[in-house]
């Protein structure tokens, strides 16, 4: 399993992309918007200039099939290492399967995104041929509902076609990294979670003492009353 950096912030991409442990970058419109991006093409050009030949996913912005297809073809032309993120549903709740089928037949490499339920995952995989695509299962959002996210990711890995890669998306905690190692090919991690990977194997007693020290330090300067 490999790690993709999940961010829209160019400064964070520049900071982390040189690490051997980082094999690619994923973005989405929400992350890009929060980074203050106003020109998508210009932004993508900057990202591609930083990452070399590492994989990157850029998502279409439109919601109708015709415009989504046009945007997808252009995004795919930005680089050989580019995957086009296609949401599995339109905003009205209809599936994007017809569009996915067209793009697949035209050779566009996709990252089908926002997959949560097993029926949609199964239908998506049946729509795709055995071409190079990524299936992004939003494990964090599944877990938000109280369901076992790793079971859904594992299911996806079992039924996918051989050329597909399964991605554990929306990680909420570092422990997701260790769960994901057993069931998928890729995990996306935010910069904050990547930084916490260094805690692996840390003495829990030492970590407990450091936590108590932090609370005491932060309490200084507060009047008891």
Summary?
With 225 residues, the chain is an alpha/beta fold. The chain is built from 11 helices and 8 strands.
Notes on the structure:
The mean pLDDT is 98. This protein has helices at 10-16, 29-34, 40-51, 65-76, 97-105, 118-127, 139-144, 149-159, 175-180, 191-196, 204-219, and strands at 2-6, 22-26, 55-59, 82-87, 110-115, 134-138, 165-169, 186-189. The protein has a single domain (2-218), classed as Alpha-Beta Barrel (TIM Barrel). α4 (65-76) runs parallel beside α5 (97-105). It contains eleven helices and eight strands. An eight-stranded parallel beta barrel has the order 1-2-3-4-5-6-7-8, surrounded by five helices. By secondary structure, the chain is α/β, with parallel strands linked by helices. The protein starts with a strand and ends in a 6-residue tail after the last helix.
Q: Which characteristics define this entry?
A:
single chain; 225 residues; alpha/beta; TIM Barrel; eight-stranded parallel β-barrel; 11 helices
> What percentage of amino acids are in beta strands?
15-25%
In whole angstroms, the N-to-C terminal distance is 53 Å
Radius of gyration: 19 Å
Within the CATH hierarchy, at the fold level, what is the topology? TIM Barrel
Shape, per Cα inertia axes: globular
Strand and helix map with partners:
Blueprint: E1 2-6, H1 10-16, E2 22-26, H2 29-34, H3 40-51, E3 55-59, H4 65-76, E4 82-87, H5 97-105, E5 110-115, H6 118-127, E6 134-138, H7 139-144, H8 149-159, E7 165-169, H9 175-180, E8 186-189, H10 191-196, H11 204-219
Parallel strand pairs: 1-2, 1-8, 2-3, 3-4, 4-5, 5-6, 6-7, 7-8
């Amino acid at each position: 399993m490999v790690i993709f950096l999940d961010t829209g912030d160019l400064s964070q991409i520049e900071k982390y992309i040189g690490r051997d442990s980082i094999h690619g970058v994923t973005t989405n419109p929400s992350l890009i918007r929060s980074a203050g991006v106003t020109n998508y093409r210009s932004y993508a050009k900057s990202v591609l200039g930083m990452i070399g030949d590492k994989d990157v996913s850029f998502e279409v912005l439109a919601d109708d099939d015709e415009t989504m297809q046009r945007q997808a073809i252009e995004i795919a032309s930005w680089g050989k290492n580019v995957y086009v993120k296609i949401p599995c549903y339109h905003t009205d709740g209809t599936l994007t399967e017809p569009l996915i089928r067209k793009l697949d037949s035209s050779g566009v490499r996709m990252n089908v995104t926002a997959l949560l339920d097993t029926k949609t995952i199964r239908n998506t995989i049946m729509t795709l041929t055995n071409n190079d695509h990524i299936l992004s299962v939003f494990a964090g959002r599944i877990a938000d509902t109280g369901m076992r996210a790793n079971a859904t990711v594992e299911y996806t890995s079992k039924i996918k076609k051989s050329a597909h890669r399964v991605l554990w998306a929306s990680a909420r905690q570092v422990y997701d990294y260790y769960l994901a190692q057993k069931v998928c090919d890729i995990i996306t991690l935010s910069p904050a979670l990547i930084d916490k990977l260094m805690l692996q194997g840390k003495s829990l007693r030492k970590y407990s003492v450091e936590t108590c020290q932090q609370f005491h330090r932060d309490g200084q300067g507060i009047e008891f009353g």
